[in-house]
Amino acid sequence: MMTALLFLVGSALAGIALVRRTLRGLLDSAEQCLWGLVTGWMLATLCGYLLARVAGQLSYTLAVSLVVATWLAAILLWLPALMRLKRGARPVLSWRSVDAGLCLVLALFAPIYVQLFSTRMLQEGQGGLYSGGSAWYDLPWHLAISSSFLYGQNFPPVYTPFPPEPLLYPYLPDFQTALLVTLGMDFQHALVVTGVALTLALTGLFYTLARRVLRAQGHGSALVQASAALATILFLLNGGLGFIYFFEHWRESKQGFFEFWSRLGVNYANLPGEQISWTNIVVDTLLPQRTSLYGIPVALMAFTLFAAAWQSWSESEDGGERWAGWRVLLPAGVLAGLLPLFHTHTYMAVGLVSGFLFALRPRRAWLAFWLPAVLLALPHFLSLTGHVAASGFMRFQPGWRGHNATNWPLYWVRNVGVPLLLVAPAWATATRPWRRFYLAFVCLFAVSLLVVFTPNDYDNIKLMYYWYALTCILVASWLVRLASIQRQRFLAFLLSLACIASGLLALQYENLDRKLLFSDYELNAARFVREHTTPRALFLTAPTVHQPILSLAGRPVLRGDTAWLWSHGYEFQKREADVKRIYAGDTDAIELLRYYGVDFVYLSAAEKGGLYADQKFFDQNFPVFYQSPEINIYDTHRRMGRRRGVQITLRPSVECRVRGHALRERGADARQRRARGDDRHARRRR
């Protein structure tokens, strides 16, 4: 574990030094630390992945070499500053009184993050590992990616819930988890340590962005700190007007307030029955969606650089030269170019905002942002283009999830809540340059209301959150002025409480919700599979979210969970029918097993209940590879010999290509067999 911590500390120090060298004149000491942690971890993770990709595996020797290289880079980057310090120069990182508001929000949210991450991320309990809330659904997916790198030698990355399709989901955040486990951390500590650190960095980055925007409008120091702190709280405790239903449910329960609060079983920021989908960003984004832990901080850093360039253009009497600000926009472009490997939706959001800002104030300096942002991301998007085009990702859906609402304005008031009602007067009191700056985010919100960018329309909220971030900054400034200048403290307090009430309820629900994620039987089965099967052994399982072979052993499965395949844009209906026939023990079941190259069949309550698996068929035809009171695993490749189209001794990359070729040729093979008249499977379908 100590080696893993050394990697995190070394990469953070290298990142801080790099940020300090690049943006020392723009960022203060606190910002340099926050930016450096995120940037250093991103770059170190990317370097680790590239090394593992070349080596074809993630080994302890490779990981330790990366730790050494990271510390050498940190020492070299910090050496000039340390030499100046030795000669009596002022401290490299110094405390400033302006950071009091930052310390306040970090101290406020730190215990919340520690509590939530430690209980959501594989908490040990009676009978197995536990999680809860949205993390109970999403955590197995991120574990599947990490385990595939750690135990499955998944280089180049294959989409293990549906092999041999390529993995196009942003995988570097999960690769970082695998890297830390390789260095000695267990999965829980790797997820908790990085999760808490990154959410705290996000909290600080939002505060510093708000502080910069508000300070540029000429507010006093105390007013800026209070407004930035309130803006951070509003953003992280979003949730809409769902709290209204809390009082209704409390009255119907006939329980005392604290009794009802201590047994809260509803997430009032996510009430589909009441058409409320404005989910809390901490509960339903930062906890379950590991990619957001990098995506949102990078977006906040990019917007900070946009705001700095915008401010310099606004302060110039002639509006600024056409190339003014390019030195600020260049690092924003580099950060954005790395985003597709960490969080694709954030890449789209940052790109769209840059385009709208350019339309509002055209400058050639934007080329310094767009060139690295496009060139660095181009290789990933070239691999993604064919998949997106075939899956029909983008579609016109005006109104997002409220397109069927009878009263569309009321729908959005219920979802966004009080901040939506306050943003108009807040915008009107802002200075003219920042009113225009905010319009770029309004345009982003408008686009996300018109066009859905993935099969799951819920994902558009990842774009809307960035509009809401700037909205919170304006609203918080207005509320603080209402309390301090107009002396309406009680009214400002009530409005602020109404903005965050649903978010507080969502945190309480998340803290209480606790569900078994993987049982001890599943943990033992996954451990046995890791120790007694080859890294790329193909398993047949039911398409469930909580599949230990996929998530804990890192082995590919023939057909994964439906929600994953659908939301990631994979066509799975044909294979789904074959999986059902195999488990039912149809006459062509053995032929299908041989065709797909299935090595092992997993049989548990999920397969028996959801797919009506015929256990007698497998008992009669295949030897039992593993057995427990709840799980049987059958060895199918011994019964059938070598896999069709694949040799076990092939190198990993070759094996993936051969298997992929075999599956793609399935249609042609079937036509040839029908022409010969000896295809029993084809006759059965007819």
CATH class of the domain at 518-685: Alpha Beta
Sheet with most strands: strand arrangement: 6-7-9-8
Largest sheet: 4 strands, mixed
Helix content: 55-70%
Strand content: under 5%
Reported by name, the CATH topology of the domain at 518-685 is Rossmann fold
**Which assembly state applies to the chains in this document?**
single chain
Pick out the low-confidence regions: 642-686
Shape: globular
Q: Determine the mean pLDDT.
A: 89
CATH architecture of the domain at 518-685: 3-Layer(aba) Sandwich
Number of helices: 31
Intertermini distance: 59 Å
Class based on secondary structure composition and strand pairing: mainly alpha
Per DSSP E runs of 2 or more residues, the count of β-strands stands at: 9
**What is the CA-based Rg, rounded?**
27 Å
Throw out a few tags for this protein.
mainly alpha; Rossmann fold; three-stranded antiparallel β-sheet; disordered C terminus; 686 residues
Produce a short descriptive summary.
By secondary structure, the chain is mainly α. It is built from 31 helices and nine strands.
Give an account of the 3D structure.
This protein has helices spanning 2-23, 29-55, 60-86, 100-120, 135-150, 172-182, 187-215, 221-236, 243-253, 257-262, 281-286, 292-315, 326-338, 344-360, 366-391, 408-416, 418-429, 432-450, 461-484, 489-512, 520-532, 548-551, 562-567, 573-584, 589-596, 605-610, 615-621, 637-640, 652-664, 666-676, 680-685; strands at residues 123-125, 128-131, 395-396, 451-452, 515-519, 539-540, 600-603, 624-627, 632-635. It is mainly alpha-helical and 686 residues long. It has a domain at 518-685: Rossmann fold (3-Layer(aba) Sandwich), CATH 3.40.50. The strands form three sheets. Strands 6-7-9-8 form a four-stranded mixed beta sheet. It has a three-stranded antiparallel beta sheet with strand order 1-2-5. The protein has a two-stranded antiparallel sheet with strand order 3-4. Helix 7 packs across helix 19 (461-484). It is globular.
